[in-house]
């Protein structure tokens, strides 16, 4: 079976072992005579799949007992509305939400929040082209804000938080869609963590929400029941039919991670992968990445060819070398290599070798 190195930002590469196991179990899950896709979500088999996935995620991220894990739908973009709907109900209206604006995905969250609340931009790197994370001591927070929202990894700009901000007693909410499970974090520093699954976990269609239990029960009355975290939690993520197959694949990914040393081992590998590519970028001016070292994302590495007229050749020749999906986001241009947990270091070595060859050929 021919497999290429897939640098797609999302839906993204899934570990080869997981794809193979899913293929082996596709038509008959562990002898029960059914594919997971056909199972009742309330049946014995799927109940076990869901419980195991949840327990494994709790173990991998060391999620404390007072946090709920919810398997939802709608992606991170739906959560941008679901979060204010769930968190501002007990505030005098309009409530204020503090945002730190670090790029494309922060902007999306901010635009959506405007529908429900007053938005305060506590800090922004917009003036410098969203190339860094503003230092914590520059943030102008609102003392009685409903919550502070950050995006810990800007998937398009390739800008990642290198610290967990202390925001006092105000709940900290984080969009971790593109770096969840890629590095060790202290979950207890956050009130809410959310992530679409299709970057670092599994197929599109599943959204992971990790929420501290005192954040439940603050929803606005207009919050749709299926999006009310308290309701979802009371029904163990089965208020309505959950995305069963993506949950199953996510569960296989969690088991794959456990077999390979958990988050600590993933992080070590991710540091090594990122170092390979950034070290090379530092050594040449044929390619450009303008993010300062401290905020360079380990997951998404955007870069530009100094001579942009070579962009088409770069993409075409990369594909001939089985290196695919390297084109940058349409809003950013250039190239982007997304190197999530499932990208083996051999894939990054192959990319860097190709980039060096390409430089030799066209510099
Ligand atoms: C991909 C991404 C999103 C959008 O997720 P959807 O599943 O398309 O809603 C939001 N935030 C970040 C950080 C992302 O990487």
Low-confidence stretches: none
Shape descriptor reads globular
In round numbers, the mean pLDDT is 97
Query: How many domains is the backbone divided into?
Result: 2
Intertermini distance = 35 Å
**What's the CATH class of the largest domain, please?**
Alpha Beta
What is the fourth-level CATH superfamily of the largest domain?
A: Type I PLP-dependent aspartate aminotransferase-like (Major domain)
**In this structure, how is the largest beta sheet organized?**
7 strands, mixed
Family: Belongs to the class-V pyridoxal-phosphate-dependent aminotransferase family. SerC subfamily.
Catalytic activity: 4-(phosphooxy)-L-threonine + 2-oxoglutarate = (R)-3-hydroxy-2-oxo-4-phosphooxybutanoate + L-glutamate; O-phospho-L-serine + 2-oxoglutarate = 3-phosphooxypyruvate + L-glutamate
GO cellular component, one term: cytoplasm
Pathway: Amino-acid biosynthesis; L-serine biosynthesis; L-serine from 3-phospho-D-glycerate: step 2/3; Cofactor biosynthesis; pyridoxine 5'-phosphate biosynthesis; pyridoxine 5'-phosphate from D-erythrose 4-phosphate: step 3/5
């Amino acid at each position: 079976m021919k497999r290429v190195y897939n640098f797609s930002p999302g839906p993204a590469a899934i570990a080869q072992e997981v794809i193979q196991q899913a293929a082996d179990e596709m038509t008959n899950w562990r002898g029960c005579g059914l594919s997971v896709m056909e199972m009742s979500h309330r049946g014995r088999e799927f109940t076990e799949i869901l419980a195991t996935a949840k327990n494994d995620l709790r173990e991998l991220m060391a999620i404390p007992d007072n946090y709920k894990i919810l398997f939802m739908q709608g992606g991170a973009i739906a959560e941008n509305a679901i979060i204010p709907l769930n968190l501002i109900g007990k505030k005098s209206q309009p409530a204020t939400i503090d945002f730190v604006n670090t790029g494309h995905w922060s902007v999306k969250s901010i635009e959506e929040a405007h529908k429900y609340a007053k938005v305060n931009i506590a800090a922004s790197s917009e003036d410098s082209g969203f190339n860094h994370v503003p230092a914590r001591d520059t943030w102008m927070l609102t003392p009685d804000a409903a919550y502070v929202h950050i995006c810990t990894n800007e998937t398009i700009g390739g800008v990642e938080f290198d610290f967990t901000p202390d925001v006092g007693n105000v709940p900290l909410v984080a969009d971790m869609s593109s770096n969840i499970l890629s590095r060790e974090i202290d979950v207890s520093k956050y009130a809410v963590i959310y992530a679409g699954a299709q970057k670092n976990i599994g197929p599109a269609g599943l959204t992971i929400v990790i929420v501290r239990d005192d954040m439940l029960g603050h929803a606005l009355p207009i919050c749709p029941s299926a999006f009310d975290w308290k309701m979802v939690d009371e029904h163990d993520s089965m208020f309505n039919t959950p995305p069963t197959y993506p949950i199953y694949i996510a569960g296989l990914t969690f088991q794959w991670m456990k077999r390979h040393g958990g988050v600590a081992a993933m992080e070590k590998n991710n540091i090594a992968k990122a170092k390979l590519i950034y070290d090379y970028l530092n050594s040449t001016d044929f390619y450009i990445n303008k993010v300062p070292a401290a905020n360079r994302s380990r997951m998404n590495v955007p870069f530009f060819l100094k001579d942009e007229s070579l962009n088409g050749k770069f993409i075409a020749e990369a594909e001939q070398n089985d290196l695919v999906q390297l084109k940058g986001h349409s809003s950013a241009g250039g190239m982007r290599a997304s190197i999530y947990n499932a990208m083996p270091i051999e894939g990054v070595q192959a990319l860097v070798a190709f980039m060096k060859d390409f430089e030799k050929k066209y510099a």
